[in-house]
Write a structure and sequence with these properties.
rod-shaped; about 325 residues
């Protein structure tokens, strides 16, 4: 809803038909057709994946990337058919404001995804990162729409607001990479880390080059779209991979803990049974030894002649009883 309202507001206040004419003359429509196909395909794949994760804890990790790619698809569709917001600076420089509106909605979602896979990132860090990225985009768009020293000041502010995002991304992606480093996907996460850091920095570089007139509108749009692809499709796929691997790793750890707990419980149960057996045998042995001692004493008395002389056969039987009891 905020995307639609912001688009309508920007179109009513900042849209320029003259800028649209310049944009149509400089940027081939095929560029946006391809982006629509790429982001649209990724969006459909994410939605289909969400259908298989409806009853699992992974649903959010699928829906959020789907939202990012869905907004990117909508943005390229609006721009492709001339429904997006395109502004112009006082010197006639064309500014694709619709892309800034897209970034204001997708970039915070990506930062939230980083927070979801990196348990060391606090809610405060996430809030600060989102505030910085929104200020970065607002000042960047304002700098692109102005000229002179005001444009330079706003551009510098936009770069300053970008700086806190670097340690945030580094912390989140490093933790995500450490989770899957023991899997074959470790190299993939390393690639995602470097691609993400380079592509996020490339946005600022292409902005500077465009402001200094070193690149044209077509180059700016192509580079921004390539960075968009890396920052959204590759990045979100890498985060999903890290999340799934991390969940599998934690699940394996929980299973090991459960097995270890069961093993310890079984050992304690065996010890208890052995102790009960020993106590039973000790009790039974004591109860049996008491009458046996009496029988042995009587047989020894008979053999010693306390009751008179016994015949040889009787003595032999009593001797057997005495030795058996002993």
């Amino acid at each position: 809803m905020s995307y639609v309202l912001l688009t309508l507001l920007a179109r009513s206040l900042l849209h320029s038909e003259q800028a649209v004419a310049i944009w149509r003359a400089e940027v081939p429509v095929l560029v946006y057709d391809r982006c629509m196909f790429v982001f649209g395909t990724a969006f459909v794949i994410d939605i289909l994946s969400a259908c298989f994760e409806v009853k699992t804890s992974r649903l959010d990790m699928v829906l959020l990337p789907a939202y990012v790619k869905g907004v990117a698809t909508l943005t390229n569709t609006l721009v492709r058919y001339g429904w997006g917001t395109i502004g112009a600076a006082p010197d006639g420089t064309v500014v694709m404001l619709q892309r800034y509106i897209c970034w204001m909605h997708t970039t915070p979602t990506i930062l939230l995804l980083v927070k979801m896979i990196a348990t060391s990132i606090s809610r405060k860090q996430l809030t600060e990162a989102i505030v910085c990225v929104e200020l970065m985009l607002v000042t960047g768009a304002a700098g692109a729409m102005t000229t002179g020293w005001l444009s330079v000041i706003l551009g510098c502010l936009s770069h300053v607001f970008f700086l806190p995002l670097v340690p945030y991304l580094h912390q989140g992606l490093t933790e995500a990479g450490s989770v899957v480093s023991m899997h074959a996907a470790g190299h993939t996460m390393a690639l995602v880390y470097y691609v993400t850091m380079v592509m996020w920095s490339a946005f600022g570089v292409i902005w500077d080059l465009r402001m200094f007139g070193l690149v044209g509108l077509e180059v700016e749009e192509v580079v921004n779209l390539c960075c968009d692809f890396s920052a959204k499709v590759v990045f979100s796929c890498g985060l999903m991979l890290s999340s799934f691997k991390g969940m599998d790793f934690r699940r394996e750890g929980v299973m090991r803990q459960i097995q270890e707990s069961h093993r310890q419980t079984l050992i304690q149960e065996l010890k208890r049974v052995i102790e009960q057996k020993d106590a039973f045998m000790s009790s039974v042995s004591h109860e049996l030894r008491t009458p046996l001692n009496g029988i042995i004493g009587v047989s020894e008395g008979l053999l010693s002649g306390c009751c008179g002389v016994l015949s040889e056969s009787v003595r032999r039987q009593i001797y057997v009883v005495r030795t058996s009891g002993a």
